[in-house]
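Entry 14. Two folds queued back to back today. First construct below, sequence then structure tokens.
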Amino acid sequence: MKRILITGAGGQIGSELVTSLRKRYGADAVLATDIRPLSNAVCDSGPTAILDAQDQDAVAQTTVEHGTDTIFHLAAILSAVGETNPGLAYKINMGTLHSVLEVARLKKCSVFTPSSIAVFGPATPKENTPQNTVMRPTTMYGVTKVAGELLCDYYHKKYGVDTRGVRYPGLISYGTPPGGGTTDWAVDIFAQAVRKNSYSCFLKEGTTLPMMYMPDAIEASIQLMEADPAKLVHRNAFNVTAMHLNPQTLAKEIKKHIPTFKIEYEVDQNLESIAQSWPRTIDDSAARLEWGWSPKYDLADMTEEIITELSRST
């Protein structure tokens, strides 16, 4: 990677990926784009552009102008928001990916496209979910992610495009507000704990899901794009995880730092149903074997760091 373009750079993942890539490859090498204006922090630290990733011609022009060799395609509508408007989720998620892959084919770019544990469904084994298994999702977001994995595989096999991706678990961060995902409770709980000393959770206390702290997710994405392509077998669908959490477990860890913290439950049955269709634990041995994946943060380290950072800003 020498010249990098990021779509959807204003989202939960994108804003932190921009920072990490600019530190590693230089500010001018990383062009951050989004359909909406980006934050001052992103704009002040390097080049930015307004870009509708559905517009293939605009993507192509921006790619050429930046001299792009690698695209991190993050523009998407997430699971919870996608269920309120499935048609739009399909249009955005599939339309933007097709545009990016076509540009990558024509301009000889590598492409990173994140997938998700949303590709799995009720028929998938819930414990130690394998790398290769049944994928019958029950959300439009999951449908688009399965289709996206297959489309990226197709472009690699048919046209030789260097496509790569990981299946993100629930991602936990403190720098950007939640973006409409079913696992957003694990983001919001920290902010509410520090600011209000309490949190009302939309999932049941024992609903366990694979999770990862954002710095590990960012590092996994970059490491995969830096990996020797000759060693990659699965390419567009690597399981990755770091911990397996439910609201009760995370609340207990938060109470070690904020003893008076209280959690209550107002379960959203639609979101609970989505969560119950996903795995509880993930087997990510393929990523560990093929490109050396290993998370740095566990539950205790993550919780301490997030609470410390949020406390400084309140």
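Second construct, same run, same settings:
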Amino acid sequence: MKNRIKALAKAYAPDFTAIRRHLHSHPELSFQEFETSAFIQQKLTEFGVPFQAGIAGTGIIALIAGKNPTSKTIALRADMDALPITEANEVSYKSTNPGVMHACGHDVHTSCVLGATKILNELKDQFEGTIKVLFQPGEEKHPGGASIMIEEGALDNPRPDAILGLHVHPTMEAGKLGFHAGKYMASADEIYITIKGKGGHAAQPHLTVDTILVASQLVVSLQQIISRNNNPFSPSVLSICAFNGGFTTNVIPSEVKLMGTFRAMDETWRFKAHELIRKQAIGVAEAMGAEIDIEILVGYPTLYNNEEVTAKAEGFATDYLGTAFVGDTEIRMGAEDFAFYSQVVPACFFRLGTGNVARGITSGVHTPTFDVDEQAIEVGMGTMAYLATQF
């Protein structure tokens, strides 16, 4: 099986590199992946793989039934959306959609999983069980396409025994894989605060509520929630990233808005922190005579890699690629809506190296110069196919 998959991955790599370039040239924003979805449906039809479209809007569920298809189900997931970034790369496959770019590698994810789908469909008489393939919209935008896919039954009929996903890693050499069991990526919640008070002349602060000062005190004060309340062995981050108020040098504004993000690796601490943030914000504002509105938008949960599934996946990947190409990767305070799947079924989310220092392919994700060494596509599609068969 391993040799057959390797041969097919090598043979089809040029085709799926071309598919990656097509997707890269035609990026679409979250929940607007209409052409992308139609393209994937066309390819699945060409491959002879049955599918259901229209899940979470543009999402697709494909099924590959092997021998004894009810024995076990393994799910593979790819995200399809791009980012609102103007591409700066001068390449033949540069984005043709102004202001939109595949700057997070979802074109690679889709190409790898679509390639694995073709391989698996050709080998379906040689493995047991069912492979369920999810092509998912809206990973980059709240509430996350994964949450909607789950609500609309993507993990039902049949329910996966495990789910696998991959993500590009630009600081890892192309073709290498990284795994990490347990808590792997942080939850991500959005904080919106509005501070209100009587504005007035800056020369008469005693006749006003200084909303700028209140907001400044609050920004500093909120950091104490992390440093004094969180277990220091459990990573957590609170960052206020927007401070908007005032319009001139001599007027204290009547309103100031703050926006930020809160990240955690522990779901219990996550929601305790929400309570502390609200309490602290209200207390500071009231003590200084201001009114305050605060909203904490609950986003993606902690991404948890099931220990047993991840150990097996890493072992199968090592068997497929060799020990020199598989290793551990670090936990990350970034967030991923694959986390929703990991909270429901045993999951493994791993990294696919796409960097190449010698060729200058080193830019990080979410940047205008992000690109990948496309040699990684053959490794990604082959690995996903092999892991699916071995599970």
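Quick look at the second one. The mean pLDDT is 97. Residues 2-25 form the longest helix (24 residues).
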